[in-house]
Write a structure and sequence with these properties.
The protein folds into three domains: 2-138, Beta Polymerase, domain 2 (2-Layer Sandwich); 146-320, Orthogonal Bundle (cca-adding enzyme, domain 2), CATH 1.10.3090; 393-438, no CATH class. Helices cover 49% and strands 11% of the residues. The protein contains 22 helices and 13 strands. Strands 1-2-9-8-3-4-7-6-5 form a nine-stranded mixed beta sheet. α6 (154-166) packs antiparallel against α9 (207-215) and α15 crosses α18.
Amino acid sequence: MFIHGCLSLPSSALSPQNYPFSLEWLPHSAHLVGGIVRDALLKRYTPHQDLDFVLPVGAVETAKAIARHYNAGFVLLDADRQIARVVFERATADFAAQVGDTLEVDLQRRDFTVNAIAYNPHTDKLIDPLQGYADIQQGLLKMISISNLQEDPLRLLRAYRQAAQLGFRLDPETQSTICQLAPLLGGIAAERVQSELSYLLSTPKGTPWLRAAWQDGLLKAWFPHASDRSLSQIAYIDRAIEGLRTSYPEFVPYLHQQIREKAKTTATKGEALLSLASRRTWLTVAKLACLVADSPQAEAELQRLKYSRAEIQAVLVTLRFLPLASVAGAGMTRREQYGFFQEVGAAFPAIVLLALAAGDDPREKTGEPIAPLIDRFLTPDDPVAHPTPLLSGKDLMAALQIPPSPRVGQLLAEIQLSIAEGKISTKAEALQLARELSDLI
């Protein structure tokens, strides 16, 4: 129950017994704050502890002492604001100087009421001056003040990500304020914006909130070519996955394969963990392809958002070959299909998603006309989708007594095409073909 802005918490994931260090290292004035307190009240647990403490004095000194005693990693994040991090094997603890003369002043500087609840591990009490617990019970994300959102405009987009993540709704006044402040998001570091977008793109729960963010003007600076059709196509991708779970369940894991897992060094701890939790996959590549313009504008948009070269190329390849994939099964020869797989490479799952999302209700599709290509992709020894060389370049040079040259590569390419077409299947046949072609190439 609430007592003067406090409520008792007899047992929870906040218990000091679960900390990676002994409670005796924390002064009695230290408080745990932020997402971990909110998530404990929601009974949401994660295997990696992300602890954030505020201390009136001695934040950096406390962090150093703990890191030294436990032989843990220590990082001074902000010397001016006195913020330091201690990195353990399965937990990360940040220690920050309290902002203002009291804990209540510090909490009033935060983004949303549900994130402005503090926990004192010494007294086992929650301090909730802004009634964040009541908003948690209502599933409501409410701003603390306009000035707090203006201070860090990334909080504008974070509201939509947290609403998706928590299953909350936005307070109407908060959403109206976000619409007014939306242009400010264009001035935020791209890496930080990207980390918030990553979650919205990685899960069906993020799709309606991604649309809401677009409608409220938050995507305008970063995805100027996004449209109502773009957002509808992203929703169709989610439905296409539902259809694939029935028709091609073994294909679904490929959609979630990781493109690259490296947190941006300029991101905050929470943003880095969010980025790792919502990894860049072929699913997110497909959704990104919906939001950008055609090449070369797509490349410029993604570069501005600081996506990696590998991710940008994945999107560009997906956009380039999508029209071909839409007619691939029925209209391509085996040779053309072989060339298609060679060109698209690992991006094939993203192309499938976009091809299936082209209609009104992808859940009703069986995969035609791309189904034959999915079948080939799922067959490990298929010579069209997964060619296995019968000869190496050394084999060819030794058999034909020819030196290293582009000619060797051309002969190998013709051999692979003949394998894909079913014309040859043995090493002897490959050598014979190479001899026949050697005078022509």
